[in-house]
Specification:
Helices cover 45% and strands 19% of the residues. By secondary structure, it is of the alpha/beta class. The chain has one domain: Rossmann fold.
């Protein structure tokens, strides 16, 4: 698989409802481990705050739920462009009795929030779907409050080929194709660093995603039982982080 050049065309998703079902299964079967790790990492970096947190590309709502559980004083808003995905997330978290979450149907390139009104912006596995990353980053800069916190996690296109193929082998045919396309559509650390600078986000750092010992210890039982155990997260994923968040 040649990943030197980014894949920029639309993925072959088929029917939207079918794509939502496949992604829900992928999230529940594999990605929930990383979601829990990210939430604990954010809690460690961000500290205890009030205000509004926004998850961009919230999907079925896994990260929204994890953050809402850890940050009971935050209103956590899940943003997604897909109506069926937004409905799925809303129904799932309503059934879980979460009362500090809201889901909004919106485009990351046109965020429906007032300037400097958002305390925290997070995202998991969504950046490579954004058609204009520079525009989305400018939107984040616009809505983020002074002293706010950003944690954007995504795949990296330069992940080792053997690792990528080993993960694809764990998935069904449709999930594997979507995963491989996502890797091809992802960015490198250097590319995202340049895009963040172009958007005026000079205080952001782009780096390999490595979790703290604390986050790993909090998820050790889940990791031991996961088909993704032993995965070198820093080789597969990167993250865009701004601010320590703590006061």
């Amino acid at each position: 698989m040649n990943r030197k050049e980014r894949l920029v065309e639309e993925f072959e998703l088929g029917k939207e409802d079918e794509a939502v079902g496949e992604y829900e299964a992928l999230t529940d079967g594999y990605l929930h481990i990383t979601t829990s790790l990210i939430a604990d990492e954010v809690a460690s970096l961000f500290g205890d705050r009030t205000g509004v947190a926004v998850d961009l590309g919230a999907g079925p709502g896994g990260l929204v739920k994890e953050l809402a559980t850890r940050f009971s004083s935050l209103l956590v808003i899940g943003v997604d462009i897909s109506p069926p995905m937004t409905k799925l997330a809303r129904d799932r978290l309503k059934a879980d009795g979460m009362n500090n979450v809201v889901f909004v149907l919106a485009d990351v390139h046109h965020l429906p929030f007032r300037p400097q009104s958002v305390t925290m912006v997070v995202s998991q596995g969504s950046i490579h779907h954004w058609r204009g990353v520079n525009i989305a980053l400018e939107e984040i800069k616009q809505v983020l409050a002074e002293g706010g916190f950003v944690y954007l996690s995504d795949l990296r296109r330069d992940a080792p080929e053997e690792m990528v193929q080993n993960i694809a082998a764990l998935l069904n045919k449709k999930q594997a194709r979507a995963f491989l396309n996502s890797v091809r559509a992802a960015y490198t650390i250097e590319e995202l660093t340049a895009l963040a600078a172009d958007a005026g986000l000079t205080n952001m750092r782009v780096e390999a995603e490595a979790f703290s010992r604390r986050a790993i210890a909090q998820n050790i039982k889940k990791l031991r039982g996961s088909p993704m155990k032993g995965l070198r997260q820093d080789a597969l994923n990167l993250r865009v982080v701004s601010g320590s968040g703590k006061k």
